């Protein structure tokens, strides 16, 4: 997979015309051929994953009032990933989402519930189904989770200029095996499947456990796709003309050294001179490494923005939570999973970085006014629609023009003080009134 991705031009990696001609299925080609000159935009094939609670309610309104009056979405493949449906189908729906995502390359996902023990009882579930994200990352050969700040011109948030973040999509504690144990001897071994030592048992670590209660944990960090992560990260930073930094704790966690070495090797060989030529860094300067401890402080100090960070899975998870809080809230951060298929074509899944906003949904169901800002979800939907149009070569120009106008309409309302109450204060609009206000501008365009 790595050589295939490396061989593609940036436009092709993002799903340009050459890839579309090679990879689009017959239905997409027919849709391109029959795309009408006027009337509704032809929505390109993509996966739409619905969730639950307040965010599902809001996205239903957005689809009804913003999208369906202007876009023919019949090529979208829709899946219900509510906890109850996962339970009813014994998670077949999640497997179907992964299969469809591999085929269509573009996915939008609403926030979903990972049920607690109380929710298992309340919803009548047979078990507590785990987060779908891990299965999606594995199923789509996840490389990175891109989380970037969202900005509205004329509205002050946290960072003044964009901040980009790449979180390695695989490895680390999330896939760990563990066992709670007592006193005894712990020996960790590894058996290679290839090379001169194939089939031999190699001792990785041995230690005595002297506590009556202890936890034994094993996990690994895959590094084969870090080359691809580096190209995605440095390419995005170069395009935005922002300074890249690589974050690890390699001084203590020695096994993280390869992550830094791979990132630096790709930067030096393929990007260093380009950053100099673009005026982003000074001649003779080197790629900067930040310890994760230092990165937490820099996120607080560098409020001017204009930088990017790349990190391992767990560090990326924690640091992007901090990034979100510094930039107002998780509603102003994107969350895009980037994977790759066997031909080197990128698979992209777009979602908001926040959850289902259950407390606001409970207020709505009690008949109280709510004011949910949908910007994070809409940015995800825009990303999925644009990527689908590019990959499948379906009504690209009109799709991009429509999504740009949708974003512009939202931003205009916030600048005019007619946004939701998180930014516009007590005089801001309710959830439904804001959606109606955007719909009116889309209808009048």
TrEMBL record:
**Protein origin, superkingdom:** Eukaryota
Check the record and name the SMART domains matching this protein: Iso_dh
Required co-factor?
Mn(2+); Mg(2+)
**Which ranges carry the Isopropylmalate dehydrogenase-like domain?**
40-438
Please give a single GO biological process term from the UniProt record.
tricarboxylic acid cycle
Region entry Disordered: which residue ranges? Answer: 1-32
Q: Which InterPro entries match?
A: Isocitrate_DH_NADP (IPR004790), IsoPropMal-DH-like_dom (IPR024084)
Q: Which GO terms describe its cellular component?
A: mitochondrion
Q: Could you say which protein family the record assigns here?
A: Belongs to the isocitrate and isopropylmalate dehydrogenases family.
What this protein is called in its record is Isopropylmalate dehydrogenase-like domain-containing protein
Sorted alphabetically, which keywords does the UniProt record give? Answer: Magnesium, Manganese, Metal-binding, Oxidoreductase, Tricarboxylic acid cycle
A Pfam family found in this protein is Iso_dh
Q: Which SUPFAM superfamilies match?
A: Isocitrate/Isopropylmalate dehydrogenase-like
* One MF term in the entry's GO annotations: isocitrate dehydrogenase (NADP+) activity
């Amino acid at each position: 997979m790595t050589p295939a991705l490396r061989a593609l031009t940036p436009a092709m990696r993002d799903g340009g015309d050459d890839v579309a001609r090679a990879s689009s299925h017959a239905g997409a080609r027919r849709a391109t051929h029959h795309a009408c000159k006027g009337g509704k935009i032809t929505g390109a094939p993509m996966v739409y994953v619905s969730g639950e609670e307040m965010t599902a309610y809001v996205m239903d309104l957005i689809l009804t009032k913003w999208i369906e009056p202007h876009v023919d979405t019949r090529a979208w493949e829709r899946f219900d990933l509510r906890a109850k449906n996962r339970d009813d189908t014994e998670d077949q729906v999640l497997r179907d989402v992964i299969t469809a995502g591999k085929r269509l390359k573009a996915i939008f996902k609403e926030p979903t519930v990972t049920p607690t023990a109380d929710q298992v009882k309340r919803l009548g579930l047979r078990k507590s189904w785990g987060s779908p994200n891990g299965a999606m990352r594995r199923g789509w050969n996840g490389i990175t989770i891109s989380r970037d700040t969202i900005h509205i011109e004329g509205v002050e948030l946290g960072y003044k200029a964009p901040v980009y973040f790449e979180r390695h999509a695989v490895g680390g504690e999330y896939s760990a095996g563990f066992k709670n144990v007592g006193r005894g001897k712990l020996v960790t071994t590894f058996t290679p499947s290839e090379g001169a030592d194939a089939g031999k048992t190699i001792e990785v670590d041995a230690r005595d456990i002297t506590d009556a209660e202890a936890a034994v944990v094993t996990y690994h960090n895959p590094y084969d796709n870090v080359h691809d992560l580096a190209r995605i990260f440095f390419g995005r930073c170069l395009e935005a003309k922002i300074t890249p930094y690589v974050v690890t704790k390699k001084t203590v966690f020695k096994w993280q050294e390869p992550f830094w070495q791979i990132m630096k090797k790709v930067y030096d060989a393929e990007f260093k001179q380009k950053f100099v030529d673009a005026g982003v860094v000074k001649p003779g300067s080197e790629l900067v490494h930040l310890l994760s401890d230092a990165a937490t402080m820099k996120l607080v100090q560098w409020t001017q923005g204009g930088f990017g960070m790349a990190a391992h899975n767990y560090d990326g998870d924690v640091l992007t939570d901090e990034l979100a809080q510094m930039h107002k809230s998780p509603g102003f951060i994107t969350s895009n999973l980037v994977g790759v298929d066997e031909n080197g074509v990128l698979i992209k899944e777009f979602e908001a970085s926040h959850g289902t906003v259950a407390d606001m949904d409970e207020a709505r169901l009690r008949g109280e006014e709510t004011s949910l800002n949908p910007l994070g979800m809409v940015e995800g939907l825009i990303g999925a629609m644009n990527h689908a149009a590019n990959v499948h070569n379906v009504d690209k120009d009109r799709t991009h023009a429509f999504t740009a106008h949708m974003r512009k309409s939202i931003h205009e309302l916030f600048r005019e003080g007619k946004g939701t109450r998180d930014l516009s204060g007590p005089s801001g609009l309710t959830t439904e009134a804001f959606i109606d206000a955007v719909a009116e501008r889309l209808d009048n365009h």
